[in-house]
Amino acid sequence: MTAVYAFIEAEKTTHTVALLCRLLQVARSSFYAWRAGEQARRARQAADDALAHEITVLHVASRHTYGVPRIHAELRRLGHRVNRKRVERVMRAHDIVGVTRRKRRGLTRPAKKAVPAVDLLGRDFTAPGPGMRLVGDITFIATGEGWLYLATWLDLATREIVGYSMADHHRASLVVDALAMAAGRGRLQPGCIAHSDRGSEYTSGELRREISRLGMRQSMGRTGSCFDNAAAESFFAVLKEEIGTRRWPDRATARAEIFTFIETFYNRRRLRKHPHWGYLTPLEIRQRHEQGHALAA
C-alpha cells in the first residue's frame, strides 16, 4: 500500500488526489494519513542515520570490537539519551558487530617437584580495593620471527593490567619482570595476593623470592582447572580478539602494538561493566576507588 500512496504523491501535480484515489480504490483519508506520517518517518530515518554515524565513529575508536552493550554505554557517556534496543536495531541495519571471543590454547606446564601455593582466592575474582589482589598468566603471540611470549598481572579491583613483560621465552624471569613492573608503579598494598596457575614459571624459586621480597602472598589454582584463574585468562581472550592481528611480521611490531593496546586502549579507554558503577574504564574504576579512599580519610 505504501507504493500506491507514493505513486499518488508523485502524480498529484498532474491529476487530482480525488481522481487518483478513486482510480486506485483507496480512501483519500488513508492517503492523507500516510502523507502526514511520512514527515515523521523521514525525521526518524534522518535521526537513525545520524545515530549510525555516531555508532560508526565509536566502533572504529574501539578498534571495531564493541558490541551493543558498550556502544550503548559510550553513547550514554556522551550525553545521548537513546534506547538500547534502538542501538541494536541501527547496528544490525548497518552490519556493525563486535568481536566474539575464541577459546585459546594455554601454556601451563606444571613443575614436577615444586610445591604449589595454597589457593587464596577460591575463584573469588573480586577485591575491595586496588593493589590487593593480582592474577597472572602467560600467553604466546605468533610472529614471523617465532613466538613472542607475554606475561601480565591484572588487578582484580580495577581490571587494569598493572604489570606486563614480553620476551622470546617464557622462563620465570618473564613473570618476575612483569611483577616488578606492577610493584614499581607503587600500586600494591602490603600482603597483596599474587594468584596464578601452577605452571613452572609460577612455582619457580625465582618468583617465590620476588613475591617474598615485595611482601606479597602467593596463591595458585588447581592443576588442569582453567576456571581457577579465569580472570587472567579472560584478558588474553580480549587481547587476541580485539587487537585484530593474528600474526605479526616480527616481534618488535608485535611488542609495539601490544603495548599500545594495553596502555592506550585497554587500561584507559575500554569500557567494562562495574557491578556498582556501570560502564567505566579500568583507569576510571581505580580513580573511583582512590576518591572514595580520600573521602574516607
Automatic annotation (TrEMBL):
Pfam families assigned to the protein according to its UniProt record, in alphabetical order: HTH_21, rve, rve_2
Q: Outline the extent of the Integrase catalytic domain.
A: 126-290
> Known InterPro entries for this protein?
HTH-like_dom, Integrase_cat-core, RNaseH-like_sf, RNaseH_sf, Transpos_IS3, Transposase_IS3/IS150/IS904
Highest taxon of source: Bacteria
Question: A GO molecular-function term, please?
Answer: nucleic acid binding
Coiled-coil residue windows: none
SUPFAM superfamilies named in the record: Ribonuclease H-like
One Gene Ontology term from the biological process aspect of the record: DNA integration
What is this protein for, i.e. what is its function?
Involved in the transposition of the insertion sequence.
Recorded hits in NCBIfam families, A to Z, give: transpos_IS3
Protein name per its UniProtKB record: IS3 family transposase
Organism lineage string: Bacteria, Bacillati, Actinomycetota, Actinomycetes, Kitasatosporales
